[in-house]
Specification:
Number of helices: 2
CATH architecture: 2-Layer Sandwich
Number of domains: 1
Strand content: 35-45%
Strand order of the largest sheet: 4-1-3-2-5
Largest sheet: 5 strands, mixed
Distance between the termini: 24 Å
Shape: globular
Order of helices and strands: EHEEHEE
Radius of gyration: 12 Å
CATH topology: Alpha-Beta Plaits
């Protein structure tokens, strides 16, 4: 299992980015979570196989209809013990 943390910048809050990303991740069979950050970015941790993570990354670059993604920072993480769900977490400062 591979775990990647994505820090997504741009117009990504208030445009249903988290809920849409959650739906995409679930459809791809990924586990993890997504949350807003107080600096205006969205943080997402996704764990699964590389093909599913590649598909998610393609979607993250575009996002939902009203989003405008300007940058995505990707950080490889150690595999975490996560539930098999993909959840939306409360806003956090990084």
């Amino acid at each position: 299992m591979i775990c990647l943390r994505y820090l997504i910048s741009g117009r990504v809050q208030g445009v249903f980015y988290r809920a849409s990303a959650q739906r995409q991740a679930i459809a791809l069979g990924l586990c993890g979570w997504v949350r807003n950050l107080t600096d205006g970015r969205v943080e997402l941790l996704a764990c699964g196989d590389s093909a599913a993570l590649n598909e998610l990354e393609k979607w993250l670059k575009i996002g939902p209809e009203y989003a405008k993604v300007s940058n995505i920072e990707i950080i490889t993480e150690n595999a975490e013990v996560l539930s098999e769900n993909f959840e939306i977490r409360a806003t956090s400062s990084l």
